[in-house]
Design goal:
The structure holds two protein chains of two kinds.
Chain A lengths: L2 H12 L23 H16 L6 H8 L34 H19 L16 E5 L1 H13 L10 E5 L3 H13 L7 H8 L11 H12 L4 E4 L5 H5 L13 H14 L5 H16 L11 H20 L3 E3 L20 H14 L3
Parallel strand pairs in A: 1-2, 2-3, 3-4
Chain B lengths: L10 E5 L7 H10 L1 H6 L2 E2 L8 H9 L7 H4 L2 H11 L3 E5 L8 H10 L11 E8 L2 H14 L6 H8 L7 H10 L1 H9 L7 E5 L8 H10 L20 H14 L5 H16 L13 H21 L2 E3 L15 H6 L10 H44 L2 H14 L2 H14 L7
Parallel strand pairs in B: 1-3, 1-4, 2-3, 4-5, 5-6
Helix pairs in contact in B: 3-5, 12-16, 17-18
The chains are: A mainly alpha, B alpha/beta.
């Protein structure tokens, strides 16, 4: 039982050490007001491991930031190291930091990552100096690709008009729309975990609001008149509708782990900046750094897919019965996935590894 | 602590908790008297009684029903005001109790503690405390008043989890575990600068608690206005059982901005809390031994540490039945809010319906008044439209808008007039 042993471990971690607490024995003098929490120390050990794997040492500034970091929000407080402090009749039980779940370490890591994003700032959107002529339009529908189309049209000098002649409501099959609605949410205001969210989103009589194609088309129909609304299911027809000749590129859909990292980072980020900046930092600062990280995509499980097929069939009938123009076959709204394309989601350990990698890389 | 008002001494009093110990009342007294305090060199830097709540949210990076956006940067602003003040400054909010060690470190550093310079302030930590026997039921009740719908038994089960692995348990102990809070906030302060204000037992004179706060805040001898409407009234067992059922029924339909005025204020505070004859919520008999042991161990720990206790540290060991005379306490059986007397709940529900109907009638009258006002405005507008000069101008505009040259004239006219409206 020795606090000096704990200070010895802190000194070793400051020096790039990677030895787990349970294997540590050397003592040292106190170097701070209080011992950092077990979560912070274990995150620092993981940072050192990642830095060593990359053949370098962790940045000293990062090391001190980790040691003085706090896990934001409600959750377990900074925990004592098991064996470093005498047993007390109060306080949470001390822990072996190596036994802490990744979820607990991610609270600390994403807090630091959010600070890094704020320090980096949002890169400006490249915009041409001149506006190109073309029909006035709006793009709505499946949030993730719709946002990508809007950005690309801006880059081409074609901002949306105040009184659109055409509103393109992008649609996908209900399973894909549900998954992409979650991705868009994760890269904006965050929210519940994929498992918790999908339990409600893929259960009700209607798709989630951001995945409800008919509701979105109806809302735009009420604003501009149904005659100006076109539901776009075959995306090859979109450029012609928007009056642009070049094809519009398909947006990169991040993996389940990247999506979960954005969701978790969104939480502390929302405590540092206002919502518009929160979303911009996640989409334009974080995403380009992690978009190409490999990993399984978000996929509904078997039960979710059965719900999506049933709901997709209902949505197809609603689209066919409505007055909107439709580009593409409404049959596309019903998912047709194979059995090997179901039930994948984020993994806490992989998400933590990703967060640690980004911390080691530092703000860019 | 009266020597703290001596000229040239910078002192910071940090009141960091705990909830349900008269903190709203103390903050309101400080806020209402802030000008008078200022004359004595004492700063309570606030533009509303609970202004330090936002600063606490910012310091601890806590979400709180959308308020976190308003909280961004508030702690640094508060710390700057305090650093600039040459006399005594008071910071008070009960959720600061749950700040982590590193957050406390950041807070103290931002206030200048530990700088070692000649300007380093004298930091005092104040913790107002109440026995767990009263705090446990009060915390569950507070949870129910914040939309939660779990049973009392579930709450008790969660807070007894030794790992404290749920958010509820970690929050509860974060704001209630006195030795742990003081470890975080007062670890490197001499014990004479750590002041524990104990809340007197129920039924005592109401001014006693303020007198204790006044001593802790170094305000004795100041003539302050102590009248305040701030209180956080408690509910009886049938009333809290009813409120839990209401939460279950309306949580999905009533958004937070309606819940607070309708359920929390109108139903809970203004209506149900007025029913004072129903049994009060207490600890179940099976838990009294455990809670009593815990309370006694905390009292031992506090006594050993030698803090400045204002009140009686023995008051931290609670009496199982909290209110009423000793005879009433002995005669009253424990009332279980998970199995309330349904007739009592029905009576509370009738009172709630009556309050809602009265409020609804008030709103209907207000709606009728606004409708009448709107109707009068519409009539006045129509009268204006019927004037010959208006009709002539409208005709000119319609004619101009019908051809390209006229539209250009109108565009120029609007630009000159400085508006883009297309109205005639």
């Amino acid at each position: 039982m020795s606090e000096a042993r704990a200070w010895g471990w802190v000194a070793s971690l400051r020096d790039g050490g990677t030895t787990p607490w349970s294997a540590w024995a050397t003592e040292a003098d106190r170097t701070g007001r209080l011992l950092p929490g077990a979560q912070q120390l274990e995150v620092l050990r993981r940072v050192n491991l990642a830095a060593a794997a990359a053949g370098r040492r962790a940045d000293p500034t990062l090391v001190e930031r980790v040691l003085t970091a706090s896990a934001p929000g409600r959750g377990r407080p900074d925990l004592e190291l098991r064996g470093a402090v005498p047993p007390a009749a109060y306080g949470p039980p001390p822990v072996d930091p190596a036994e802490l779940p990744a979820d607990e370490l991610l609270r600390v890591a994403t807090n630091l990552l959010a600070e890094d994003l704020v320090a980096t700032g949002v890169p400006p959107l490249p915009r041409p100096r001149w506006r190109r002529p073309g029909p006035s339009y709006r793009v709505a529908g499946t949030p993730w690709p719709a946002e990508a189309v809007r950005e690309e049209m801006l880059r081409r000098g074609r901002p949306p008009g105040p009184r659109p002649g055409v509103v393109a409501v992008l649609g996908h099959d209900v399973a894909t729309m549900t998954e992409l609605a979650y991705v868009a949410r994760a890269f904006a205001e965050g929210g519940p975990s994929w498992a918790d969210w999908v339990r409600h989103a893929a259960a009700g009589p209607r798709p989630a609001p951001r995945a409800d194609l008919v509701a979105m088309a109806r809302a735009w129909g009420e604003r501009v008149g149904p005659g100006r609304v076109t539901v776009v299911l075959d995306h090859a027809g979109l450029p012609r509708l928007l009056g642009t000749r070049r094809a519009l590129s398909e947006p990169v859909v991040p993996s389940a782990d990247v999506t979960d990292l954005a969701r978790r980072t969104s939480e502390p980020l929302g405590l540092l900046v206002l919502p518009d900046a929160q979303s911009a930092l996640l989409r334009r600062t974080l995403l380009p750094r992690v978009a190409d990280r490999p990993g399984p995509p978000l996929r509904l499980d078997e039960a979710g897919l059965a719900w999506a097929r049933e709901t997709g069939d209902r949505v197809r009938r609603e689209v066919e019965a409505a007055d909107y123009a439709v580009v593409g076959n409404p049959e596309r709204l019903v998912p047709t996935r194979g059995p090997d394309e179901v039930g994948t989601g984020p993994d806490d350990d992989r998400v933590l590894a990703l967060a640690i990698d980004l911390l080691v890389e530092g703000p860019r | 602590m009266t020597e703290g008002r001596a000229v040239g001494t910078r002192k910071i009093i940090l009141h960091v908790g705990t909830p349900k110990t008269g903190t709203s009342y103390a903050q309101d007294v400080l806020f209402r008297n802030r000008v008078r305090l200022g004359l004595h060199g004492i700063l309570y830097p606030a533009d509303r009684f609970d202004a330090h709540f936002l600063a606490a949210l910012d310091l601890m990076r806590l979400r709180w029903g959308g308020l976190e956006e308003e909280a961004i940067g508030q702690w640094d602003r508060l710390a700057e005001q305090v650093r600039r003040h040459p006399g005594t400054s008071i910071i008070s909010h009960e959720i600061l109790a749950t700040a982590s060690r590193s957050q406390v470190g950041r807070a103290l550093e931002s206030l200048g503690h530990g700088s070692g310079g000649p300007d380093e302030p004298e930091v005092h930590v104040v913790l107002s405390v109440r026995d767990l026997t009263r705090q446990i039921p009060a915390e569950w009740q507070e949870n129910v008043k914040h939309r939660r719908s779990f049973r009392y038994s579930r709450f008790l089960e969660l807070i007894r989890d030794p790992e404290r692995s749920t958010r509820l348990a970690s929050w509860f102990w974060g704001v209630q575990e006195i030795p742990s809070i003081l470890d975080r906030w007062a670890h490197d302060l001499p014990p004479e600068r750590v002041h524990l204000v104990t809340v007197p037992p129920s039924g005592g004179a109401p001014e006693v608690l303020w007198q204790r706060f006044a001593e802790a805040f170094d305000l004795r001898g100041l003539d302050l206005d102590l009248e305040t409407g701030r209180s956080n009234p408690s509910l009886g067992v049938p009333e809290i059982a009813l409120l839990r059922r209401v939460n279950r029924a309306v949580n999905k339909q009533i958004p937070p901005d309606h819940y607070r005025p309708l359920v929390r204020e109108l139903l809970a505070h203004q209506t149900l809390s007025q029913r004072r004859t129903t049994p009060r919520l207490g600890l179940p008999p099976a838990l009294r031994q455990w809670v009593g042991d815990l309370e006694r161990s905390w009292v031992d720990e506090i006594t050993t540490r030698g803090y400045h206790v204002i009140g009686d540290v023995g008051e931290l060991v609670g009496s199982p039945q909290m209110e009423g005379t000793e005879a009433e306490k002995a005669a009253t059986p424990w009332a279980d809010p998970d199995r309330p007397r349904e007739r009592a709940v029905a009576r509370a529900a009738v009172a709630a319906i009556a309050a809602l109907l009265v409020d609804n009638a008030r709103m209907r009258e207000e709606e009728a008044r606004l409708r009448a006002e709107l109707h009068e405005t519409q009539l006045a507008l129509e009268r204006a439209y019927l004037r010959p000069t208006y009709r002539a101008r409208a005709k000119v505009v319609r004619r101009l808008e019908s051809e390209p040259a006229g539209r250009a004239v109108m565009k120029g006219y609007r630009r000159l007039r400085g508006r883009s409206s297309r109205s005639a």
